[in-house]
Design a protein that fits this description.
Pfam families: Arm-DNA-bind_3, Phage_int_M. Helix content is 56%, strand content 5%. By secondary structure, the chain is mainly alpha-helical. The protein folds into two domains: 57 residues, no CATH class; 93 residues, Tyrosine recombinase, N-terminal domain (DNA polymerase, domain 1).
Length: 173
């Protein structure tokens, strides 16, 4: 599509014929004309949309979890703390690690946590929910996710039974 923007002649590629049908091409042309009427350059808008899609695909759960772990390492957290976080996140990576973080929903996180819970690891499931929540809150803070779905999962698990044990104490005389 040929058009003029800010006094300069420009071209906008809509697509190749067999891939993009006539109806779809006309719809894209009409959208480009609407952008021009609003004072926006359609080719710039197309580039911005393409970059946003590429960024959304690159912002996977695994990438943001690694970024959060690096941040905690820079904050000089203890090595044991970092290894616990990495161990917990390794339980979630097979199921949701490669998914874009903005597309992960509460039922997907619940499925990951249920897999841990069914093995009888109730406390691990609780800690994993908290760690996944940290990743989502970091993604929300950096503008790569809208919400933290783990908040909706509170109370969805079996509460671990705490068994108090008597301590051996020595009487000082």
């Amino acid at each position: 599509m040929a058009y003029r923007f800010a006094g300069a002649e420009k071209n906008l590629a809509i697509g190749v014929y067999p891939t993009v049908g006539l109806k779809e091409a006309r719809a894209k042309r009409d959208e480009a004309k609407r952008l021009l009427a609003d004072g926006q350059d359609p080719s710039v808008a197309k580039k911005i949309a393409k970059a946003a899609r590429a960024q959304a695909v690159a912002d996977t759960f695994e990438a943001i979890a690694a970024e959060l772990t690096d941040k905690k390492r820079r904050d000089e957290k203890a090595d044991r703390t970092l290894s616990k976080i990495e161990s917990l996140l390794s339980l979630a990576k097979p199921d949701i690690g490669s998914r874009p973080i903005a597309e992960i929903s509460a039922p997907e996180v619940l499925r990951v946590l249920r897999a841990v819970e069914t093995r009888g690891r109730h406390e691990t499931a609780r800690r994993l929910r908290a760690t996944i929540g940290q990743v989502f809150r970091y993604a929300v803070a950096t503008g790569r996710a809208d919400t933290d779905p783990t908040g909706a999962l509170k109370g969805a698990f079996v509460t671990p039974v705490v068994r108090h044990r008597a301590a051996i104490s020595r009487k000082l005389s």
